[in-house]
């Protein structure tokens, strides 16, 4: 697998796991009405459940459905093989099958590499789109969670 694809896939996966592991890590919750620690935990659990119902998003669930499949491997090799076959045929007609195969392999390999790069760029766009969508859902969830806690007498920041 190419390093670019590995890095992007790893970044997406670690980003999704990192978000789900620290669901409310960036939120500070202060009990303004003297709630006990037990009451605060119960209220936070209740608000988490309510926010999940309101938004349809559970930050504790890592959704791999949103992650796209990485581009297929071997396009340059297949392109070179196809080009060599066609080049050999063309070269045989012209009297030099070996030279035609070599030229065909080079052209086909280049075309395969171009297709591979386009597929990688498309994949990178899909990864960015999935990440942006997850961040938006996380933001909506956090807003609902904060509203619930504020309604129960907590300062959220």
Give the overall pLDDT as a whole number.
76
Strand order of the largest sheet: 1-2
Radius of gyration, whole Å: 27 Å
Taken from the alpha-carbon principal axes, the silhouette is rod-shaped
CA-to-CA gap between the ends?
Answer: 43 Å
User: How is the biggest beta sheet arranged?
Assistant: 2 strands, antiparallel
- The helix/strand series, from N terminus to C terminus, equals HEHHHE
Let me know the number of strands: 2
Q: Level of helix content?
A: over 70%
Short summary:
The chain is mainly alpha-helical.
Explain what the structure shows:
By secondary structure, the protein is mainly alpha-helical. Helix content is 72%, strand content 4%. The chain has four helices and two strands. The model is unreliable at 3-21 (pLDDT under 50).
């Amino acid at each position: 697998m190419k390093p670019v694809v590995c890095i992007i896939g790893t970044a997406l996966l670690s980003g999704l796991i990192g978000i789900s592991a620290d669901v409310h890590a960036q939120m500070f919750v202060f009990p303004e009405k003297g709630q006990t620690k037990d009451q605060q935990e119960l209220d936070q659990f209740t608000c988490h459940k309510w926010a999940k119902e309101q938004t349809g998003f559970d930050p504790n669930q890592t959704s791999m459905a949103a992650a796209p499949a990485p581009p297929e491997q071997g396009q340059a090799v297949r392109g070179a093989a196809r080009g060599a076959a066609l080049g050999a045929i063309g070269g045989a007609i012209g009297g030099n099958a070996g030279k035609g195969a070599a030229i065909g392999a080079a052209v086909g390999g280049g075309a395969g590499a171009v297709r591979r790069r386009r597929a990688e760029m498309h994949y990178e766009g899909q990864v960015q789109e999935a990440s942006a969508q997850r961040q938006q859902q996380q933001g909506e969830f956090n807003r609902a969670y904060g509203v619930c806690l504020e309604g129960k007498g907590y300062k959220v920041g």
